[in-house]
Design brief:
It is a single chain. The chain has about 425 residues and is α/β, with parallel strands linked by helices. It contains 17 helices and 14 strands. Strands 3-4-2-5-6-1-7 form a seven-stranded parallel β-sheet, with helices on both faces. About 45% of the residues are buried. Bound molecules: adenosine monophosphate (AMP). The site of adenosine monophosphate has 13 residues, from helix 3. Keywords: ATP-binding, Cytoplasm, Helicase, Hydrolase, Nucleotide-binding. GO terms for molecular function: ATP binding; hydrolase activity; nucleic acid binding; RNA helicase activity. Its EC number is 3.6.4.13.
Length: about 425
């Protein structure tokens, strides 16, 4: 498809090409192929693309190149390129990508998000940064405290804009946009294109280039989806129990965290079932080896986090096990889409503990199909560790306690539920045109 296109032919400069080579990126992905030349020209962009398509590099590479054209700083507390992302995880990933691709360019970068103390973030911003990746609530907070200035922003990116709106960041995002100069390059990426996103695009983008990459079609219908309602403490024994079935010959087990992946893999090893864990803390070599062994069938079970599993392209996966429910419903579709490739059928088991019911509901809303409730398995042993903590109450960690996700997804600064804003007279576009 695009295999004959090289990054050099897209017009990227030598320091970026070296970094891409080191990251072992051989050829641009379709969105990179489509987006990079237009972004290098300074065009605005509306991108319809999901995570996993290579969209981060599609915007990060041209941003780095454009920033390198003039080496002036942004001044104290200033920012030259601003990337807004809905969650802390995504913000961290984007920042890491900038640092990987920009390794030979010497730019200052910073990443800020809510749920942690602001001190170190304020310090990181005090001398100004070339590239700032931020979640909207914390950024607006710091901007209002005059800890950061946005009046020197040359390039603005809204990443996963649909999620930002869904999370109630609409007002914060617009307030932030208003703080940036009208003369800027603006990019908006979204996995879906509801009306609110189109409207946002009309407000902040100027004659944008539209790029769209169709995600891999996931035939969810061909996947038998079962859910086990179990306490967290018996998930391990349930997994062992299921793995007795020889039909589970090539299995991916998903956990939310790297530690979770290590723990599950360690537990399987102890039970005499060889497995490999892959996640961001493993070296490239270790990940490659684990994947090769999985592909060849030498390892039957791969334990992975969502992020690590993104690049996995292995056919004939018989089962996907959601040891922990994914934080968002789209990840569920991505996860189970690992099975039932190329028209085959597949099976997905989800382990849902009482704290994960909301995630399950969100999944069922998205797929418009209730998961089949699997019959309880008798005689499962609870693990010691969970046992020590005592039984988990269905409401534990919910309204009265700290939500499990706290810190991962910050709250809307303005506390505004979804977008209820009416378009301003003139709109931001007209203001920009007039500028
Ligand atoms: P993203 O959609 O930006 O989250 O990227 C998904 C994954 O693909 C990340 O792990 C990137 O490091 C990787 N990636 C992005 N572009 C390429 C490429 N051209 N070749 C190989 N891997 C890539």
């Amino acid at each position: 498809m695009t295999s004959d296109v090289t990054f050099a032919s897209l017009g990227l400069a030598e320091p970026l090409l070296r970094a891409l080579d080191a990251a072992d990126y051989k050829n641009p992905t379709p969105i990179q192929h489509k987006a990079i030349p237009a972004l290098l020209e300074g065009r605005d962009m509306m991108g319809l693309a999901q995570t996993g398509t290579g969209k981060t590099a599609a915007f990060a590479l041209p941003i780095l190149q454009r920033l390198s054209k003039s080496r002036h700083g942004a001044g104290p507390k200033g920012v030259r390129a601003l990337i807004l992302a809905p969650t802390r995880e995504l913000a961290i990933q984007i920042d890491e990508s900038f640092r990987t691709y920009g390794v030979h360019m010497g730019f200052r970068t910073a990443v800020i998000f809510g749920g942690v103390s602001q001190g170190p973030q304020v310090k990181a911003l005090s001398d100004g940064v070339d590239i700032l990746v931020a979640t909207p609530g914390r950024l607006l907070d710091l901007q209002q405290q005059r800890k950061v200035r946005l009046d020197k922003v040359e390039i603005l990116v809204l990443d996963e804009a649909d999620r930002m709106l869904d999370m109630g960041f609409s007002r914060d995002v617009l307030k932030i946009v208003d703080e940036t100069p009208l003369e800027r390059q603006s990019l908006l990426f979204s996995a879906t294109m509801p009306k609110a996103i189109k409207k946002l695009g009309e407000e902040i983008l100027l004659e944008p280039v539209h790029v769209e990459v169709t995600p891999e079609v996931v035939t969810v219908d061909k996947i038998d989806q079962h859910v086990y309602h179990v306490p967290a403490s018996v998930k391990r024994s349930l997994l062992l129990h299921l793995l007795n079935d020889p039909a589970m010959s090539r299995v991916i087990v998903f956990t939310r965290t790297k530690h979770g992946a290590n723990r599950v893999s360690g537990h399987l090893d102890k039970a005499g079932i060889p497995s490999a864990a892959i996640h961001g803390n493993k070296s490239q070599n270790a990940r490659q080896k684990a994947l090769e062994d999985f592909r060849s069938g030498a390892t039957r079970i791969l334990v992975a986090t969502d992020i690590a599993a993104r690049g996995i392209d292995v056919d004939d996966i018989t089962h996907v096990v959601n040891f922990e429910m994914p934080v968002d419903a789209e990840s569920y579709v991505h996860r189970i889409g690992r099975t039932a490739r190329a028209g085959r059928s597949g099976i997905a088991y989800s382990f849902c503990d009482p704290n994960e019911r909301d995630e399950l509901k969100a999944i069922e809303r998205l797929t418009k199909k209730p998961l089949m409730v699997a019959a309880p398995v008798q005689g499962l042993e609870a693990d010691q560790k969970h046992g020590e903590r005592g039984p988990r109450h269905p409401h534990q960690g919910k309204p009265n306690g700290k939500p499990r996700n706290s810190g991962q997804q910050e709250k809307s600064h303005s506390g505004q539920p979804r977008s209820g804003r009416s378009r301003r007279p003139g709109g931001r576009n007209n203001q920009r045109r007039a500028a």
